[in-house]
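assembly run, all chains below
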Amino acid sequence: MARVPDMGGLLGTVRDALRHVPTPALVVDVDALQANIEAMAAQAQQAGIQLRPHAKTHKTVEIAQRQLAAGARGVACATPLEILAMANGGVQDLLLTSPMQDVAKMPTLIVAARSAKLSVVVDHPSQIDLLRQQMPAGERPLTILIDVDVGQRRTGVCDVADSVALARLIKEWPGAGFGGLQGFAGQVQHVHDPVERRSGNAAVAAMLRSHAQALTESGFVVDDITGSGTGTFAFDVAGPFSELQVGSYIFMDADYGRVQDDEGALPFRRTLYVLATVTSVNRAGELTVDAGVKALALNGPLPDVFGGLPQGASYRFAGDEHGVISLPAGAAPPRPGQRVLIGATHCDPTVNLFSRLHAVSAEGAVDEWAIRARY
Amino acid sequence: MARVPDMGGLLGTVRDALRHVPTPALVVDVDALQANIEAMAAQAQQAGIQLRPHAKTHKTVEIAQRQLAAGARGVACATPLEILAMANGGVQDLLLTSPMQDVAKMPTLIVAARSAKLSVVVDHPSQIDLLRQQMPAGERPLTILIDVDVGQRRTGVCDVADSVALARLIKEWPGAGFGGLQGFAGQVQHVHDPVERRSGNAAVAAMLRSHAQALTESGFVVDDITGSGTGTFAFDVAGPFSELQVGSYIFMDADYGRVQDDEGALPFRRTLYVLATVTSVNRAGELTVDAGVKALALNGPLPDVFGGLPQGASYRFAGDEHGVISLPAGAAPPRPGQRVLIGATHCDPTVNLFSRLHAVSAEGAVDEWAIRARY
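ok done. output:
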């Protein structure tokens, strides 16, 4: 079972502090968020491993700054737009985790590189060509890592020989330094069973070790092996990773609530909710809220945590702007206009549906954080 | 089969005109869009039925203005934010199609009502109470319609007696006028088979007729019956509707491409695409593009129309920022950095993922339209 916070307390604070904010609104329990940030930082520090949380999860400068204050060396970003938003927000050390092949994105990266130490990953010689052609001389040297396909079949080199060939190309460019390897095992992060997840992850570690060994034997220094995620960080601190790109641990979500480690649920709390208003109550045993496909990401389990609704409530999507919540038999329905909290489905794409994240503490609304770099 | 435009021509124009625009980018074929707008307007005019296209599909003032220029009486909106965006864009006649129960949304509606004729729908007395309490005296009178649940089980009154009771409450408020009925049959729009769809729709029409009859017998004048959609408009022009809230016909999408009428595909062209860049090409028979869950809505069939890829290509989602495209055996893969067009999945929530819509004609990029009223 997920460690669900006391929703009653949070709900009361939210209903009061955000009473003038139209719904649907995205809400984070900022005390639990801070606890998650510190818990991950403590685990990384104890293991002697660097932390580079992934900003694609939150897209907010304020959360990145909290992660840095807790000891992260920098942040990871999925797109050049995120890189620029974080650089403009004062983040000094940035890694772009997607190989980049689009000349139209270069101006964004060039501007970001003026204020931050920038690292990128590549999986093909043409990406190095693009960077060499476009990155002006005089910018500070790029760090380039090689992205390895560790079984996700999305990006990355598949062969050890390709890693060595790319490292040679990087070495030939004086404007860049070779930084090591990246391997993100997206296919393993969400495996609920810890034994199965550990076994899938061992194969990932073996792949990265073979690439690192080949590079070392060819005379390259592999400074960093970056990757990991909220589902596997507890295994990955044992190596070969030197840096953790964990993202979802700050919010958790309906799926990560089901991922188990050896002691049960992962050691993080659910913090991300969509605040919705009860709109229609004409059907017995059901009510309709104003949060649908444009407020809750579809690629995850349905919402499984609610505030302000009886135990046993369940949610179904009902179009762009509506969700229908079924109530257990005999439960008293909330009145029209009442506000309820709905636990986020998949955290990253849910955040991406909103322009603002309302940070709420037991004391009330703390702040309104801009969600940046949406398309 | 969907009537697919000549993608080759569009692709060439897009590759040239948008070469400085980073991908993923949302693109509309503006000539085909205009043809769709005019085709629907002609059908409505021929049937002597009013057109009120739904702005939730496009969220752009520019498309609303084209719809009005082609003869629409006004536009429909799903949220008060959309209402305000359209009012600010000069649209004079607006209908909010979702019953509204959230006091925090009232300021948005009040501002919009200063510049536009505003109609809203209700399905509960408490919504009328909220409007009466909040709408300042001196604003122009609201038109209030009764939302009927025609089988979607989302919003709307379920009983004829409730319609009559609500009409009485509306009549008691001098600040409002009773406008008629709304019935949106979301459950019928996407039924692919025309015989099945027509039969489901007949039940909807019968329900609306029974509500209208009861209201008429109670002395109310039912000025309008509004509803319908791209899947059923061809049936609905025969009544009881007086006004069509069609939305998706302007773009069509992977699902509406499969909806059949008696003559085959619906008489509208596919116009909406996501432009993406080929990012990774290391796996035989596959390539990775930079358009994933944050660029293409998940609640529809997978993309089924491509520009710049061999016949027989297929797409799978690969995370927030990536999609993987499988190529048929023996097909020559595009080179890294090449740009491809991907037909939109579900049009409304795909539009909602972008801040800009690039309008492209055979002559080049025509304009960049702001997508408004995202959360």
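Chain A has a mean pLDDT of 94.

The longest helix of chain A spans residues 194-217.

not gonna interpret more than that til we talk
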